[in-house]
Amino acid sequence: MLGMKPIILFACVACCLASVANEPYTPSREEVARAYQRASEITRARNTVLNSTLTPNWIGGGSAFWYKKQLSGGRHEYVRVNSETGGKSPLFDHAKMAESLTKAFSTNIDATRLPLDEMRVATDEKTLTVTRESQNWLVNLETYECTRTSSESQGQQQQGGRSGHSPDGKLRYELRDGKIQVFEIGATTPKFETTLADYASASWAPNSRHIAAFRVIPGDRKQVFLITSSPQSGGRATFVARDYDLPGDKLDTYETIVIDAQSGSETKSDLEPFWTGGRPWASPPRAQWRGSENRFLLQFTERGYQAVRIVAVDLESAKATTLIDERSSTFVDTTALIRRDLTRTNETIWRSERDGFGRLYLHDLQTGALKNVITPAGWVVRSIENIDEGSRTITFSANNTRQDQDPYFIHFFHVDFDGKNLVRLTDSNGQHRVNFSPNRKRIVTTWSRVDSPPVHELRDAETGKLISIVDEADTTAWAGFGIRLPEVFVAKGRDGATDIWGIVCRPRDFDPEKKYPIIENIYAGPHDSFVPKTFSPVMRMQELAELGFIVVQIDGMGTRNRGKKFHDICWQNIADAGFPDRILWMKALAEKYSYIDIERVGLYGTSAGGQNAAGALLFHPEFYKVAVSSCGCHDNRMDKFWWNEQWMGYPVGKHYEEQSNITNASKLRGKLLLIVGEVDTNVPPESTIRFVDALVKANRDFDFLLIPNAGHTDGGAYGESRRRDYFVRHLHGAEPPDRNANPTRG
């Protein structure tokens, strides 16, 4: 790559070694102490990579942009890039700018450390505005004269009537004590009040006659409780109760009503009461209006997550007509839904996995009829970046688009609404993110891999043609730390055919003649994929590896972004966690590299990963020997309903109990450390504490760390120390440093 700074790479020679049995690596106390020191040292490498990110600041419509380029020693400069040619030049004369700002700010300004973080360049590039201490300064880029200007307006308040006013301005409604009152403007006595009560939300139709309203049917609204044992203010412990729906609880649902503001009539829709598909604190439903249509739209998820519907409700009859009915025999992944309505043509672009992959489809929004599929088969659409209704084109991102690359790599494209004229905008072998010019003619894209630092490119937004490499990350200083780049490793999954992807981190002093324990960083939540795909100067996994471990991360079956079949493994099967794939992957790694001790395997995880880590010692103790589990959901009946019912299904069946870590506590083998924060507002801490109770009743040996005042956490710095110590003690059979030997003063 052009201008690439040198990187120290370490070739693995294990495959070339003679077939001599490696001796298990068991460090001495001195070696352990040095390993901890190395782990702390590499944290200094975090900020040593220069220009790992590049933010283009577009000038005008996008004929040029500028960016702040990092230089060694904390210095920087400002670079202008011509968007047509890719040519680069200084944005201004840095020496003259420093001289001007020194006079204006009455303090010495270094030309290589200009304080211009809040800066805007005029479209004609003749002036720039600098903001310093809430004061604006205008710099003439021809004379470099710097003058103070008046503070800019914070913007006018948004105009328009309150939401309760009708579009024609003649009526208004008020929601009082669950009833809706309709007033004529200026009147204090309502024209009428609804007979029905328990209204939660309402909105006017464009015709100023009808109101779409929703009545709440309360659910159980049960609570969970938190005790802060050690409040920062001192004194007694504090207690908090809050609404928190669990799987199987009766949820709030909403009844749809059409109110005629002229007659005062209330007409119940034939639509069954529905829930919003969100959390207990989510807002009530709101009608979706489309121009002057005599109807409104609603989108909602049916309980059980096997159907998402878009319906139209007629204002005269209140009858509901289903336009789109997205269904699955397992689950509809609501965490990946995409919908973009087209106002000009009354169409909608809808992401669906109906053929096994996340594709975009064009639907007629008047009838719901499918018009055509937009994106190619087998691709997994991740986002819609832009829609141009005039040219009827869409810009989107997707993965699984190239057979010669990691299937998780995200690339960007644009295509016509009818699926024709597909253009790939990015093609480099890595994970991409993009920034479009205001006129949509150019993009600046940054790509990298875990084993390749970032590269910033300027491309044509119509053709994807590479115009220039704008810049590249400078890894010169970083390379001096001798950190090993992670290895990307691929092995077959449980079906013998599907590729499972992961990464491998090794210590800096790695010796292929030794035999190292292996530790998996696990998170198997079905709502995404989790193995890093971009370059990072220092991973937490690398810090752990410095203690003499091979540390890996894997995306097994049941996670997202590889298609519906791959994903469906998690259906009513959270406890699977992709373990069959993970175990095969690590065995394949050990078969390739003799320095991996497949008899000494540990893992750690947080939240869903905490559930996975503990579950490994319950359901797969023949393979996993040591686990550190932080704030885990140890029973899917004891965590937020919306996440658990999405994957485990509704109603709550026997499979919830069968897969519970708590139910299976007596199966524990190996060494387990449980960590939880006492005021976790995500996963109730009693999930971990009840697991502790079950382990006690089963007479199992384990370790438990409750962190006062902590929320949903892996334990923070203290938890990280305890996690490292646990693996050193139980995988190496060595003693970690004794922190109590030299206590420090508080």
Protein architecture, described:
The chain is α+β, with helices and mostly antiparallel strands and about 750 residues long. The strands form 10 sheets. Strands 1, 35, 36, 37, 38, 39, 40, 41 and 42 form a 9-stranded mixed β-sheet that branches. It has a 4-stranded antiparallel β-sheet with strand order 2-3-4-5, with no helix packed on it. Strands 6-7-8-9 form a 4-stranded antiparallel β-sheet. A hairpin with a 2-residue loop joins β32 and β33. Mean pLDDT is about 95; it is low at about 1-20 and about 150-160.
Characteristic key phrases:
14% helix, nine-stranded mixed sheet, 33% strand, alpha+beta, single chain, globular, 746 residues
Number of helices: 11
* Arithmetic mean pLDDT: 93
> How would you sum up the major sheet?
9 strands, mixed
Structural class: alpha+beta
Got a strand count?
42
Radius of gyration: 30 Å
The shape, in one word, is globular
Low confidence ranges: 1-19, 152-162
Strand composition percent: 25-35%
Roughly what percent helix?
A: 10-25%
**Alpha carbon gap, first and last residue:** 51 Å
Write the layout of secondary structure elements.
Layout: E1 23-24, H1 29-41, E2 57-59, E3 64-70, E4 76-82, E5 88-90, H2 94-105, E6 119-121, E7 127-132, E8 135-140, E9 146-149, E10 171-176, E11 179-184, E12 192-193, E13 199-204, E14 210-217, E15 223-228, E16 238-243, E17 253-260, E18 266-268, E19 288-289, E20 295-301, E21 307-314, E22 320-327, E23 339-342, E24 347-352, E25 359-364, E26 370-373, E27 380-388, E28 393-399, E29 411-416, E30 423-424, E31 431-436, E32 442-449, E33 452-460, E34 466-472, H3 476-479, E35 487-492, E36 499-505, E37 514-521, H4 540-545, E38 550-555, H5 564-567, H6 579-592, E39 596-606, H7 608-619, E40 626-630, H8 641-648, H9 654-658, E41 671-677, H10 686-697, E42 703-707, H11 716-732
Parallel strand pairs: 1-37, 37-38, 37-39, 39-40, 40-41, 41-42
Antiparallel strand pairs: 2-3, 3-4, 4-5, 6-7, 7-8, 8-9, 10-11, 11-12, 13-14, 14-17, 15-16, 17-18, 19-20, 20-21, 21-22, 23-24, 24-25, 25-26, 27-28, 28-29, 29-30, 31-32, 32-33, 33-34, 35-36, 36-38
